[in-house]
Structures are given as C-alpha cells and as structure tokens.
Amino acid sequence: MSELRLPPAERTLGASGIAISPIAWGMWRLAENGRTAGEAARLVHAALDAGINLLDTADIYGFDGSAGFGDAEALLGDVLALEPSLRARMVLATKGGIRPPLPYDQSGPYLKEAIDASLRRMKTDVIDLWQVHRPDLLAHPQEVARALDDAIAAGKVRTLGVSNFTIHQLAALNQFLGNKLVTTQPEISPLRIDCFENGELDQAMMLDLVPLAWSPLGGGRLLSPESARDKAVVAELDRIAGAKGISRSVAAYSWLMAHPAGIVPIIGSQQPERILEGTAALEVRWTREEWYAVLVAARGERMP
Questions:
Q1: CATH number (domain holding residue 33)
Q2: What is the per-residue pLDDT across 240-270, written as a single tens digit (0 to 9) for each?
Q3: Fewest C-beta atoms under 10 Å: which of 73, 114, 282, 289?
Q4: Which of 29, 43, 53 has the alpha carbon at shortest distance from 274?
C-alpha cells in the first residue's frame, strides 16, 4: 500500500518569511472558568514548549453574549505582560470583523478600530497574522482591502488571512489587496469534509494559502460521537489508530495533515497534556487506502 508523505516540518506564510509550525493552538476557550494569567501562561508554555508557535485567537473569543468582548485577547495580553519574552517565540494570529450584536462589520473605520483594540488588549506592537473572522455581506471587498493594506503599511499587521469565506468571497477580497492573503481558516475535520470537494483546498493550493483547520475534532463529536455517521467515522478512525498505536485525536489531526494542501489543525484543548499529545500527529504516515476509508465513512457512501 502506498504511503502518503509526512507533513512538512514548517509552513511559510506567503512571501513573508514567517515560518509556522504544522500544528496550531487555538485560544477560543482561554478565558473560560475565571482562568488567571498565571494559569493561562502555563498553557502558552505548553504549546510553545511542544514546538507549536502559531497561536490563534480572536477579539470575539470570551464573549458571553452581553459583556466581555475581547476577554481572550486581554488574558493573553496579561500573560505577555508577565513574560514579555514569550512574544518572540510565537506567531500571533487573531481575527476580527464580528461586532456584537450586528453581527458583522468590516467597514474601513471599524476594521481600523478593531485592529487597534486587539493590539491594546494583547499588549503587542504588531499582529503577525490578522484574519477577517467571517465575511460581512454589506462590505465591498475593495473597502475591506484598503483598510487591511493600510494596517500593514502602518506596521500594525504583518500578514493577512480570512476565516469562513467561500472561494468566491476569498477571491474577491484577494483581487483588491496589495498584500495578498496567506491563510484561509475553514472548519475541517473527518466530520466536516466539504472543503475537500468544494474547491476551498484547491484554491488554497493554487494561491499558496495555508489552510488552518478550526474544530478539527468536529466540535468534540469525534470524542463523544452522537449520530450514526459520527459513530461510523469514529469506528474507522479507531480501527486505523489502533493499528498505528495512536489515539483517536492524533489520528484525526494526522488525517487532515496528510492532505497535500498542508492543512494546519488548530488544537483547541486547554489541557497541557492534550496539547502535547497532538504533536504526535507529525510522525504519523497514512496510506491512500486508509485515508480514503475515513473519507468514505464520512461521506456515507462509496467514492464515485
């Protein structure tokens, strides 16, 4: 059986020269449960010490529906205030453009306001990767592009990406940008396979975008399967994971990473041991037969 290649040791964000780890750590739950700056610092250390340098957050993370906008960013800022040297070890990514209760605003003035607010909360001078979190259907891509290019010209942002954009929305924004996009962040998991066939990953390869996969464990459903489809996918993952001597989570991460687009899964766990466990995916080889077996389980039918 033919084996697929191992994931690359690192990815570069476009022509920026910024090298990122093949796995990222996400902070959408960083501000939960009254976590202190010291407790958050231990998680940041866990990621960095495991060799994960891409840390992904967003201004909306930590929002409880009424107050607390920017809580996750602010907590990370507290960590960096405690240990400023950590900043040089990370590629710091955040997102904006969601504005409760609108819900979306990517007008030029608001984007400038959002980027400035993220910089203040995180107590940093520059954001390595700033991403439009979800597309604002009322914002012309030319206006969005102008605001983002201005942020780079001002030295506030180094590179740009999008999250949850369709291929056409991404292409429209990229058309107007002087500083082209370097990442796209869709939901991808063995339970969310749309991007394998709807052109998103093909576009990423064509434009040399790094695909960052949010919710690579299917929002936890791979760990606690609910539907018959969930259970079928889990059974296939477990069969292959058992043969390879790895956990189900590592199997899911490595399955994504085996794709030629160079998918970077974002580990969402806030447990140091789970963050470290995820890096085992770097050493897992899949065969074509194994990879397609998981896809067929997810499709619920044979390949055409």
A1: 3.20.20.100
A2: 999 999 999 999 999 999 999 999 999 999 9
A3: 289
A4: 43
Residue written as token pair 């079928």: 232
Q: Which domain holds residue 40?
A: 11-224+256-285
- Structural domains of the chain, count: 1
Single-letter amino acid code for the residue at 181: L
Please write the tens of the pLDDT for every residue from 269-290. 999 999 999 999 999 999 999 9
Give pLDDT tens digits for 180-224. 999 999 999 999 999 999 999 999 999 999 999 999 999 999 999
Whether 230 is covered by a domain: the verdict is no
Q: Which residues of 157-181 are buried (b: 16+ CB within 10 A; e: fewer)?
A: bbbbbbbbbebebbebbbeebebbb
**Residues with active-site annotation:** 61
Judged against a pLDDT cut of 80, whether residue 66 lies above it is answered with no
* CA max distance for the chain: 55
**Residue 175 forms part of a structural domain:** yes
54 in a structural domain: yes
> Could you tell me the two tokens for 300?
């619920």
- Residue 28 DSSP code: T
Q: Is residue 38 part of a domain?
A: yes
